């Protein structure tokens, strides 16, 4: 009998670990994202030169055996800067995406479950936050509070939370009406047990897809901010900032501009492929789910 | 029923814009940090700071200032620019016109193009035209506007030299002067905007093509053309409308970056200047303008779907 | 054109040796295996079987529309002599325009939402009959009138969403008829419709056949529906035709054990007692060799499980029929010689039931946000009593407020007024509990005593939790933990006929019948006195239906449970219930002991329900005459709710005053202005 119970609980853990279908786009996406993360983490080991070390003698050089991707106008090694260049934006995007998903999920589920006036008021407020285009909102906040990393993380969270709340709310609403939630309410369960046991496991897929998507949008936004001069400060190696710095030399050393663009694109394409692949595997309608 | 629906959406739109003005105001003016001190720098005397406070009206409580601003805004008076001293609206006028030109081209060309591409992708699902279009869309949504702009400059301004890389005309230049310079910014915005509309339209077409009523129309022996244009596409367009609206509104944000890349004298360039100069009334106007554009676009999309969707236009089964 | 061959043989549609396979997960799963059928002009053929037997695939093949991922692996379908599966696009389109009309299961999804009804009919008329716009409109109005839709000249300008389900189904029929087809293919055409509407639509098919002389192929799981329309039948199991021939002969003396099993699983409105059912489910169909039905078959021998599948052979039953009968069974003679299949198990025993469990008085539930003088509350002034160990059936069409009442008792809706009291057991001296409170505010003991079982087992279980977990949760709320809870879970599982090993499965890994058993186990785990069973068998195939009904009956005896059994299906009600309460638009119009209500005298509404249900019983011999009425959607503010559909309503009385109760003895009473003598059935 004891043996039997052990077997049963093993079977349960096995069954709970729902296998991820191996879709090529999902795998390719995860590979690209993983590659970028590994490179960002291992940049100190991989980079041939310190990324912020100027060298006036080597300025504005094309590709060579010493500098594979050439140098910028201060003579800094472009390859080293590209390897380091994802760190700032990735750290900010990851933090903001995590915050967005946490707040968005809790508020989205709560409002779907409560409905009534709470839902009405929250939706109106979210509409108005959504109505200010993201980059405008960020510029406004940066003007008022400066462009420190915490400010940008907070601002990006506030800007992207409303859309996430709406998506989670829609997903949760489709679950809240189902009979197993009704059954839980009829046996007198409260909000948190219902949320944790009945709703959360069934919207997890949607939240995961949203997480990848938000992370990619925040990444784009933060890079744009850096490009405009309101994000990473020189001499920080950052892809957005690098494009802005080296753009005037596009005719002379195009690699210095193209390399960070390619690096940024691989990361975002990876995130999108992963989100697409996962969404398709789980039958989630990803496009209608997203509001920029 | 119809009037009630429209009235309700109008009321929501006004409410949303009003809440947005409040949010922008709170973010800009009620947050910590003394504006006069920041404008005058760390070495300013307290007396000078107080004088500037008074002249800007900053010595009054925030809610009074907001009500004053709101009262003015209703009559079209958004205050004066801190830098030029001109009324904000006349300061922004020329820039607004230029952005409207840019946005107009993007909207007309971009939406037509992306709807057509989306339908083609949906119809040729998983075959090569779809794979090409979907790949393009994936790439388009994966790169920020400034990179698209930079690549286009490299290709069409530097290599081919078809278009100028930067705009030299000022905010008051004539449309004729601007026209040669508008194409590259327009193309950059179109690429990014099209990506989302294409994807939505493709999904929507695929969904509708597998709907039972489309299968049934085929079983009734109707021609493929009729099934597509009468039964499938009108219903596929509906969910795409809102995505189009969101993307038109997104343009307002996208132009900030793209205009700055090309130095195009539009509202985006003006905004970057305002941020650099800490020109709060101007910044506030632009942010509120962006919000209003978003809300108006959404309202139009809502009204269009009410018009196109009989479920919203006509009462349901009597009850 | 091979019309010549058609004229010689009179065959309109010919399916020969058709095999279709569906590709799933890199494997080809056969859906149809070597199916051969032929249909002469003017004939009506029924294709029946439980879900998963391939009948819908056969219907799609007949119109040349295979579902994505399927492939014809052999055979052909010829319509008017031309192959519709192998033909080019032009041939297929011509056949569809000239020969075939198709009526799908769910008309709501089959009408284009953005087009007016008239435009949809009109474009078919223009494509098939070359009419101009004006002519097409006039013809569309005529067609809508032909399918007996009210006010067809106004209806042509409506959009599909403005019609009721029954009206949408009639529009779908009009669309199918627009091209003047010679063959009408009906895929579950009345599933999902209320019983009265169903009888009306079925009667329409009968009259259309008589008027237009067209042939029908009707695919359905509902043996009663097909026997009302089709004189020939083909019974399918696991992708094969196992019996075919004259419908009445097959129903009277089935020659295949599966036909026999189906018939003995169907609850009958005219026969009291639980249906005997048959073991297993379609999922047990044998893949490898021999007869696919052998694992479930009481007649099976060793020979049945080896070799090739049995072939159709002529049935020798000594009866002379117009249509020869065939059956694919090695043990045909034993099946034919077996005792009659009509046997019911456990005919209802009269019970001594005194102790009341649930007492409802004057229950009113009002969903309206603001007062509206034209309508009344959704549920109004309902009195209801369920005693310990008693099954009380709540019967009515959709929109009758049955589920609202159940949800109110469960504490998921607040009543507007009225009393709901759950009596404690007298021997344990428990205090009565007030059930007008919401579930969250109830005493935990009172909450546990009332348990819900849902219609759709699939959505009533959390797909991301094991079914054992679903049962453990209510046990935990009862205070059982750890080993104790697991023992109790296994005991409850055993009660509903599940293995302890099922506990670790996810709902998707169980069959529909097993899922419904888990739903019942979850309710039992709460330790209920009262079970609210909301249409619990209506989504199940008949063989599962029979077994779940028997399970509910067993549990009632074992645990002394009271049931509020909600159903639209009078036959199922008759099989299980002790008492019946008939509801129309949230108002009780009749109540009484089961055998009295199914006896002589009824409320006009009950009579309408019964006549509709009786006419669609398997082997019903009466000519089907359906009413074209539809359930209404909003109750009136005053008077009798049923007056608009009542043939006997008295003007100036029924529309003004609430009808009085007429007591007929033994607790049987009718709420009607018309004196019972007039309402009595012949």
What would you say this structure looks like, in words?
- The complex is a heterotrimer of chains A (292), B (319) and C (682).
- Chain A has helices spanning 2-16, 24-41, 43-46, 78-84, 87-114, 116-131, 134-145, 149-176, 179-186, 191-228, 239-246, 254-281, 286-289.
- Chain A is built from 13 helices and no strands.
- Chain A has one domain (22-47, 69-282): Orthogonal Bundle (MetI-like fold).
- By secondary structure, chain A is mostly helical.
- The longest helix of chain B is centred in the C-terminal third of the chain and has 39 residues, at 224-262.
- The mean pLDDT of chain B is 83.
- Chain C has 682 residues and is an alpha/beta fold.
- Chain C is 33% helix and 22% strand.
- In chain C, helix 20 links the parallel strand 21 and strand 22 (562-567).
- In chain C, helix 6 (133-146) crosses helix 8 (165-178).
- The longest helix of chain C has 18 residues, at 195-212.
- The N and C termini of chain C lie far apart (56 Å).
- Classes of the chains: A mainly alpha (292), B mainly alpha (319), C alpha/beta (682).
- At the A-B interface, helix 6, helix 7, helix 10, helix 11 and helix 12 of A face helix 1, helix 6, helix 7, helix 8 and helix 10 of B.
SSE arrangement:
The complex is a heterotrimer of chains A (292), B (319) and C (682).
Chain A: H1 2-16, H2 24-41, H3 43-46, H4 78-84, H5 87-114, H6 116-131, H7 134-145, H8 149-176, H9 179-186, H10 191-228, H11 239-246, H12 254-281, H13 286-289
Helix pairs in contact in A: 2-12, 5-8, 5-10, 6-8, 7-8, 8-10, 10-11, 10-12, 11-12
Chain B: H1 2-29, H2 35-40, H3 46-56, H4 62-74, H5 88-123, H6 128-142, H7 145-159, H8 175-209, H9 212-219, H10 224-262, H11 267-277, H12 280-308, H13 310-313
Helix pairs in contact in B: 1-12, 5-6, 5-8, 5-10, 5-11, 6-8, 7-8, 7-10, 8-10, 9-10, 10-11, 10-12, 11-12
Chain C: H1 3-9, E1 11-24, E2 27-40, E3 44-48, H2 55-62, E4 70-79, E5 82-83, H3 89-98, E6 100-103, H4 107-110, H5 117-129, H6 133-146, H7 152-155, H8 165-178, E7 183-187, H9 195-212, E8 215-220, H10 223-229, E9 232-237, E10 240-246, H11 247-252, H12 257-265, E11 274-275, E12 313-314, E13 326-327, H13 332-337, E14 344-345, E15 356-365, E16 379-387, E17 391-395, H14 402-409, E18 417-422, E19 433-434, H15 444-449, E20 450-453, H16 457-460, H17 467-477, H18 482-495, H19 512-525, E21 530-534, H20 542-559, E22 562-567, H21 570-576, E23 579-584, E24 587-593, H22 594-597, H23 604-615, E25 661-663, E26 669-671, H24 676-679
Parallel strand pairs in C: 3-8, 3-9, 6-7, 7-8, 17-22, 17-23, 20-21, 21-22
Antiparallel strand pairs in C: 1-2, 1-4, 4-5, 9-10, 10-13, 11-14, 12-13, 15-16, 15-18, 18-19, 23-24, 24-26, 25-26
Helix pairs in contact in C: 5-6, 5-8, 6-8, 9-23, 17-18, 17-19, 18-19
């Amino acid at each position: 009998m004891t043996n039997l119970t052990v077997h049963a609980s093993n079977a349960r853990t096995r069954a709970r670990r729902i296998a991820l279908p191996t879709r090529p786009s999902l795998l390719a996406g995860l590979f690209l994202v993983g590659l970028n993360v590994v490179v960002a983490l291992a940049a100190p080991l991989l980079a041939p030169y310190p990324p912020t070390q100027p060298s006036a003698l080597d300025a504005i050089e094309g590709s060579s055996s010493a500098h594979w991707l050439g140098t910028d106008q201060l003579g800094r090694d472009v390859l080293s800067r590209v390897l380091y260049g994802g760190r700032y934006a990735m750290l900010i995007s990851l933090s903001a995406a995590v915050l967005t998903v946490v707040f968005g999920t809790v508020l989205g589920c709560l409002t779907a479950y409560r409905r009534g006036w709470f839902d009405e008021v929250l939706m109106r407020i979210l509409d108005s936050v959504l109505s200010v285009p993201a980059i405008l909102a960020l510029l406004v906040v940066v003007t008022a509070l400066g462009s420190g990393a915490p400010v940008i993380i907070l601002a990006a969270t506030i800007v992207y939370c409303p859309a996430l709340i709406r998506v989670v709310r829609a997903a949760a609403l489709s679950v809240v009406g189902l009979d197993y939630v009704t059954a839980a309410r009829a046996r007198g369960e409260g909000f948190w047990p219902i949320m944790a046991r009945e709703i959360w496991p069934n919207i997890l897929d949607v939240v995961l897809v949203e997480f990848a998507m938000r992370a990619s949008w925040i990444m784009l936004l933060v890079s744009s901010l850096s490009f405009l001069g309101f994000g990473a400060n020189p001499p920080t190696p950052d892809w957005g900032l690098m494009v802005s710095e080296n753009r005037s030399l596009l005719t002379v050393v195009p690699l210095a501009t193209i390399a960070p663009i390619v690096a940024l694109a691989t990361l975002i394409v990876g995130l999108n492929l992963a989100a697409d692949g996962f969404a398709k595997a789980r039958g989630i309608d990803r496009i209608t789910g997203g509001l920029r | 029923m119809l009037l009630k629906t429209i009235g309700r959406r109008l009321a929501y739109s006004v409410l949303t814009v009003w809440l947005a003005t409040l949010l922008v105001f709170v973010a800009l003016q009620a947050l910590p940090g003394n504006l006069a001190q920041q404008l005058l720098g760390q070495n300013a005397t307290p007396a000078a700071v107080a004088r500037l406070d008074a002249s800007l009206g900053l010595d009054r409580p925030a809610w009074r200032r907001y009500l004053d601003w709101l009262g003015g805004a209703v009559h079209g008076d958004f205050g004066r620019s801190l830098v030029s001293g001109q009324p904000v609206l006349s300061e922004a006028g020329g820039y607004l016109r230029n952005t409207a030109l840019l946005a107009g081209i993007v909207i007309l060309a971009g939406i037509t193009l992306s709807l057509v591409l989306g339908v083609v992708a949906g119809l040729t699902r998983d075959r090569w035209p779809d794979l090409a279009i979907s790949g393009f869309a994936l790439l388009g949504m994966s790169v920020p506007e400034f990179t698209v702009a930079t690549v286009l400059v490299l290709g069409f301004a530097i290599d081919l030299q078809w278009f100028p890389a930067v705009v030299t005309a000022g905010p008051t230049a004539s449309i004729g002067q601007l026209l040669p310079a508008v194409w590259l910014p327009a193309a950059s915005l179109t690429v990014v905007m099209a990506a989302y509309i294409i994807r939505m339209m493709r999904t929507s077409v695929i969904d509708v093509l597998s709907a039972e009523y489309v299968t049934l129309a085929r079983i009734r022996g109707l021609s493929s053309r009729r099934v597509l244009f009468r039964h499938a596409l009108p219903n596929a367009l509906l969910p795409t409308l809102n995505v189009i609206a969101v993307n038109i509104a997104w343009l307002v944000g996208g132009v900030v970056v793209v205009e700055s890349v090309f130095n195009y004298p539009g509202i985006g360039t003006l905004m970057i200047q305002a941020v650099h100069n800490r020109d709060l009334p101007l910044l506030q106007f632009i942010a509120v303008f962006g919000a209003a554009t978003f809300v108006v676009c959404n309202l139009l999309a809502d009204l269009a779907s009410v018009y196109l969707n009989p479920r919203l236009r006509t009462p349901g089964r009597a009850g | 054109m091979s019309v010549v061959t058609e004229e010689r043989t009179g065959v309109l549609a010919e399916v020969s040796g058709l095999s279709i396979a569906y590709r799933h997960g890199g494997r080809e799963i056969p859906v149809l295996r070597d199916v051969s059928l032929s249909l002469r002009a003017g004939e009506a053929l029924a294709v029946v079987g439980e879900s998963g037997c391939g009948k819908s695939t056969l219907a799609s093949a007949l119109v040349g529309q295979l579902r994505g991922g399927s492939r014809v692996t052999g055979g052909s379908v010829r319509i008017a002599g031309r192959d519709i599966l192998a033909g080019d696009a032009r041939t297929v389109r011509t056949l569809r325009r000239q020969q075939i009309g198709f009526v799908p299961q769910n008309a709501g999804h089959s009408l284009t939402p953005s087009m007016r009804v008239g435009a949809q009919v009109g474009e078919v008329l223009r494509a098939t009959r070359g009419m101009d716009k004006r002519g097409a409109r006039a013809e569309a109005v005529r067609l809508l009138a032909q399918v007996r839709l009210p006010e067809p000249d106004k209806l042509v300008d409506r959009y599909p969403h403005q019609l009721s389900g029954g009206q949408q189904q009639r529009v779908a029929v009009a669309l199918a008829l627009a091209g003047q087809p010679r063959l009408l293919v009906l895929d579950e055409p009345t599933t999902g419709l209320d019983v009265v509407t169903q009888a009306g639509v079925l009667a329409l098919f009968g009259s259309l056949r008589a008027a237009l002389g067209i042939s029908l192929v009707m695919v359905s799981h509902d043996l009663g529906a097909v026997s009302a329309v089709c004189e020939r039948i083909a019974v399918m199991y696991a992708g094969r035709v196992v019996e075919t021939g004259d419908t009445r002969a097959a129903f009277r003396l089935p020659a295949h054990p599966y036909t026999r099993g189906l018939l003995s699983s169907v609850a009958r409105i005219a026969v009291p007692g639980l249906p005997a059912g048959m073991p297993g489910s379609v999922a047990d169909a044998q893949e490898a060799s021999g007869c696919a039905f052998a694992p479930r078959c009481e007649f099976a021998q060793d020979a049945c499980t080896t070799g090739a599948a049995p072939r159709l052979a002529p049935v020798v039953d000594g009866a002379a029929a117009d249509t020869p009968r065939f059956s694919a069974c090695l043990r045909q003679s034993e099946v034919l010689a077996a005792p009659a299949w009509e046997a019911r198990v456990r005919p209802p025993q009269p019970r001594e039931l005194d102790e009341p469990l649930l007492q409802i008085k004057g229950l009113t539930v009002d969903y309206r946000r603001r007062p509206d003088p034209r309508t009344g509350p959704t549920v109004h002034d309902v009195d209801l009593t369920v005693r310990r160990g008693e099954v009380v059936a709540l019967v009515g069409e959709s929109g009758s407020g049955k589920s609202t009442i159940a949800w109110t008792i469960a504490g998921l809706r607040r009543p507007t007024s009225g009393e709901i009291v759950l009596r404690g057991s007298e021997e344990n001296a428990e205090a009565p509990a007030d059930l007008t409170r919401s579930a969250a505010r109830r005493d935990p003991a009172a909450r546990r005593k009332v348990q819900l079982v849902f219609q759709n087992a699939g959505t009533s279980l959390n797909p991301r939790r094991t079914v054992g977990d679903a049962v453990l949760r209510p046990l935990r709320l009862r205070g059982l933990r750890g080993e104790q809870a697991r023992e109790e879970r296994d005991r409850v599982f055993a009660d509903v006929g599940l293995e302890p090993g099922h506990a670790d499965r996810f709902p998707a890994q169980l069959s529909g019948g097993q899922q419904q058993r888990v739903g019942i186990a979850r309710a039992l785990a709460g330790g209920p006195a009262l079970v609210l069973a909301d249409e619990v068998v209506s989504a199940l195939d008949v063989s599962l239906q029979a077994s779940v009904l028997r399970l509910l009956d067993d549990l009632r005896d074992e645990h002394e449970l009271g049931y509020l059994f909600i159903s639209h299906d009078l036959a199922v009600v008759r099989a299980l219930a002790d008492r019946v309460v008939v509801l129309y638009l949230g108002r009780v119009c009749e109540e009484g002991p089961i055998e009295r209500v199914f006896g002589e005298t009824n409320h006009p509404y009950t009579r309408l329900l019964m006549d509709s249900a009786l006419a669609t019983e398997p082997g019903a011999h009466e000519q089907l005459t359906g009413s074209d009425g539809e359930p209404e959607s909003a109750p009136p503010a005053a008077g009798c709710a049923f007056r608009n559909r009542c043939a006997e309503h008295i003007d100036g009385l029924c529309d003004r005053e609430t009808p009085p109760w007429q007591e007929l003895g033994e607790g049987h009473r009718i709420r009607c202005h018309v004196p019972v003598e007039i309402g009595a059935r012949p």
